[in-house]
Design a protein that fits this description.
The structure holds two protein chains of two kinds. By secondary structure, chain A is an all-beta fold. Chain A has no helices and eleven strands. In chain A, the strands form two sheets. In chain A, strands 2, 4, 5, 6, 9, 10 and 11 form a seven-stranded mixed sheet that branches. Chain A has a four-stranded antiparallel sheet with strand order 1-3-8-7, with no helix packed on it. In chain B, the strands form two sheets. In chain B, strands 2, 4, 5, 9, 10 and 11 form a six-stranded mixed sheet that branches. In chain B, strands 1-3-8-7-6 form a five-stranded antiparallel sheet, with no helix packed on it. Classes of the chains: A mainly beta, B mainly beta.
Chain lengths: ~110, ~110
């Protein structure tokens, strides 16, 4: 499986600011995804990061709030914009494999908004 | 819509066997996945079923019945380190996206 890293691993931010989370993979992958995991909850898909085109967002998530970049096949960023305490969560990127569709997850970014 | 149900919590004894059930109703199906997630860590892949039947991987086995929309994860010879959340997820074949159940928090006691 691919080695996936995320930066930052954690951050504490002020309300109204924005944070960009980076996801780096050690090999080229077609599919990259961004998830949110709120405290004590399971994973919710935010969007699919498409290389060379706009991300595909799930219901309840919009580009203005969660802009995503995917400049190449090894890297993606997720920005959490105009943050509020409700955005406090763990944000995880994952990479998908063709065929089985198994996804492997990065270590996550723990965000706290004050 | 997508609906994936798992028990919220389970408790079992070290050395015992535990079965974690998952039922699903999804608009499509291209495989069911089980992940383990320890507190504060990312989910790690455990198993994958796309055809009916049992897949065995050491102490962990996973079963699928597509006609019943049902899967279970079987953990044998439980160890304290197996205390974690176990997440059931379905690939509904829409861009290889996974939809996750709420997770089952398993507590293994001595």
């Amino acid at each position: 499986s691919a080695v996936i890293s995320q930066k930052p691993s954690r951050d504490i931010c002020q309300r109204g600011t924005s944070l960009t989370i980076q996801c780096q993979v050690d090999s080229q992958v077609t599919m990259m995804f961004w998830y949110r995991q709120q405290p004590g909850q399971s994973l919710t898909l935010i969007a699919t990061a498409n290389q060379g085109s706009e991300a595909t967002y799930e219901s309840g998530f919009v580009i203005d709030k969660f802009p995503i970049s995917r400049p190449n096949l090894t890297f993606s960023t997720l920005t959490v914009s105009n943050m509020s305490p409700e955005d406090s969560s763990i944000y995880l990127c994952s990479v998908g494999t063709s065929g089985s569709g198994v996804q492997f997850f990065g270590p996550g970014t723990r965000l706290t908004v004050l | 819509g997508q609906n994936i149900d798992q028990p919220t919590e389970m408790t079992a004894t070290e050395g015992a066997i535990v079965q974690i059930n998952c039922t699903y109703q999804t608009s499509g199906f291209n495989g069911l996945f089980w992940y383990q997630q320890h507190a504060g860590e990312a989910p790690t892949f455990l198993s994958y079923n796309v055809l009916d039947g049992l897949e065995e991987k050491g102490r962990f086995s996973s079963f699928l019945s597509r006609s019943k929309g049902y899967s279970y994860l079987l953990l044998k010879e439980l160890q304290m380190k197996d205390s974690a959340s176990y997440l059931c997820a379905v690939n509904n074949n829409a861009g290889n996206m996974l939809t996750f159940g709420g997770g089952t928090r398993l507590m293994v006691k001595p």
